[in-house]
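Query form — protein N-(5'-phosphoribosyl)anthranilate isomerase

QUESTION: What is the three-dimensional structure of this chain?
INPUT:
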Amino acid sequence: MTVRVKVCGTTSVHDAVLSAEAGADALGFIFAPISKRLVSAAVAREAGLAVGPAVARVGVFLNQGLGEVLRLSEAARVSAVQLHGPVSSLYVREVARYHPVLRVLRPGDLGREEALEALALPGVTPMLDAPEPGGGLPLDWDSLREAFPPRAWLAGGLGPLNVAEAIRVLRPAGVDAVSRLECQPGVKDVEQVRAFVQAAQGAEKQSYPQ
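ANSWER: The structure tokens for N-(5'-phosphoribosyl)anthranilate isomerase are given below.
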């Protein structure tokens, strides 16, 4: 099994290219208006063209209307959509008609009926994140060993120094990082990005049978 590596909060073509060159499998572009890392659809689209189709481009949304999500996703030419917030399974189903979905959950969501319904939909993959996305605080991985969903991604306070341990404990399908890869909000630290990708890839070789 290969752990995929996503670098989120990309706000420029320059940082997109650096992350792709560092070995990132996916880039996250945040379209939630309240985010410090808000990016325009035009920049996200240009960044996607610059890195090429081998790197997934994920549009990140928080409690936004379905029409807005679909409009921005089309304008930015994203290859997947990441959904935060208490949206219904019907909403998730509608988005999944057009794009693969990363459905973000908090530890407290695990086992709730609405979350389980959404995760049962075709094209929907769970991602477990901290209560405050982008806040830099990791989850208690040991406490999640039994409840961590199959094929789920992991986010929340990940960086070069702890991603290997997170992978060893939970064996996620993918890992996602933002704040610990920046020199300031929205601006990537290329050395941290490289170190994060290398640490995740190195942990993968140790944690998964070949």
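ADDITIONAL NOTE: Helices lie at 13-22, 41-51, 66-76, 89-96, 113-119, 163-170, 190-207.
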